[in-house]
Amino acid sequence: MEENNKGKTLHSLRDLGVMVLTPVLNLPEISPSLSSLEALEEQAEMIRGGAEKIGDWVKNILPTLENLKRGASREAKELVTEKVLEAEATLEGFLWRDPTPAYRRAAWLEVCNYEFSKEIHSQKEAEILLGQLVNKGYLVEDPAGILRAYGKTYTISSESFFEAQEIAETRWKLKEFLDRVNKTESKSLFDQSNISLEEFLNGKAGKFVLDIPPEEVKNPDGITAFWRGGGTLLVKSDGEKIFPCLATVSLQKVIKELRRMTINNTPLYLFLTTLKKDKPPFLQKIPEEENKKVQLLWFLLKRGLHQLEEREKIRAQGEEFGTEATTSPKEWFLKQKSGICLVKYEGDWENPDGTRAKNLFFLIKRVKEKGIKRICLVKVPDHLKEFFAKCMDEYPEEGNKYEESPYPLKAVLQAVYGQINKSVLITQNGK
After folding, report:
1. Domain span holding position 126
2. Do 338 and 248 reside in the same domain of the chain?
3. Claim to verify: residue 158 and residue 227 sit in the same structural domain
4. Whether residues 85 and 148 fall in one domain
5. Are residues 212 and 230 in the same domain?
6. Structural domains counted in the chain
7. pLDDT tens sequence across 125-160
8. Domain of life, per the record (predicted)?
9. Distances (CA, A) of 157 to 56, 94, 112, 128, 226
10. Looking at 259, 277, 308, which one is the last position of a domain?
C-alpha cells in the first residue's frame, strides 16, 4: 500500500496515514567550531601571515633564479642544481596547485610585480615580454580585458585567484612599466634633436622632436567614441620640407608607414610653410590616398605645436599664480601654516575612470576661525576649472588629512602631501 502511494500528492489529512512523505533534505550546517567569528579571524590571521611569508619568498627567489640563469657559469649552476629545481618546483606549486587562495594571490602578485619591474628599453622589448607572459599562462589575451598595452588587452589568469584589489595593483604596475618604456624611448628621440622649436619654424635644417598628445574623438552626442593615439615624434627638416623619422608608442606604426611612402619618387614630405595655415595642405597631381598621408603628418605636427603653445600659456599662468602665494608648500603642508599656497602635483593625475588631468596646480588658502582650521580654493587655471568644479564654492574644515574636502580636492591634497613629505625624507637621508 505504501509503495503504491509514493510520489502522490497529499490532498487531505486523511491521506496522511497512507502517504509516504519525501524525506527532509540534508542541508549543510556550519559546525560549532566554525560558527565563532573570532575563531575564523584567528585562522584568517594565520593565513595572512603565511601569505606574507610566501610573498616575501617569491619576491626574493625570482631575481636569484634570474641571476643564476643569466650570470652564473656552468660550473656554478651545477653546484646548486638541486636547490634551483626545488625552488622552481615550490614556486610552481604556489602558483598553480596550492589550494589556499591567499597563498596563490601572494605568489602571483609578486610574479606580476617582478615582471613589470624589469628594465626594458623599447616597445619591441616590452611586446616580447608580454608575449612571454602569455606563453607562460600568466596573461591571457582577452578583448574584454582591462590590462591594455600596445593595442592589445589582457586579463590575469584565473589561477591567480585575483580579486579587485590585486587586479587594480597589477594594472597600476603595468601602467608604470609602460610609462617607463615610453619615457626611455622618448628620451632617445629627444637626444637626437639638434634644433629648437624657434629654429625649426624659422627654417633651420636639422632634426626636431616634439610630443604629440592623444586626441579625443567624440560622437555627435558628445560622448567619447575613441582616442587617437599620441607619442613622441622625430622629424627632419631641410629648411623647406619636413620628413618623418621615428616615433614612439601608438605613432610608431603610422610613422613607419609614412616613411615607406614616396611622392614623385621622393620620400613623403610636408612643406614647412603649411604649418602656418589653419587647413591641411592638398598637393596637386598626386593620388588622394597620398594626400591623406601628407595631411596626417600635418595634423600630428599641428597637435604637437598646439600643445607646446598651451604649455607656454600654462607656464606663464603658473608664474603669475606664484606671485600671490604667501607661504611655501612645505610650510603649508608639513607645518600647517596659514596663508595662501601654490600647490603643484608632480606628474599626470589619473581619475578613477582612466582620464587624466595634466599640469595640475592651483592656489589654496588656510585660515583659522575660532580655533577651527578651514581651507578653500582661491584660484585655479582655466584648464582645471571643470576638474575642480565641485570644489570651488566649498570652505570646509580641514579635518584629518583633508578628509572634509570634496573630491577631487581631497585626493589631490593627500597626494601632494605625500610627494612633499617623500621629497623632504629623501633630502634628509641624503644629508
Report:
1. 120-191
2. no
3. no
4. no
5. yes
6. 4
7. 999 999 999 999 999 999 999 999 998 999 999 999
8. Bacteria
9. 21, 14, 11, 18, 28
10. 308
pLDDT digits over 209-257, tens only?
Answer: 999 988 877 777 777 666 778 899 999 999 999 999 999 988 998 999 9
Say if 212 falls within a structural domain: yes
Count of all residues that appear for the chain in the document = 431
The pTM of the full predicted model, rounded to 2 decimals, is 0.70
- The three grid cell numbers given for residue 16, joined into one nine-digit string: 496522511
Of the candidates 159, 191, 223, which is a domain's last residue? 191
pLDDT of residue 338: 94
What is the predicted pLDDT for the residue at 2? Answer: 45
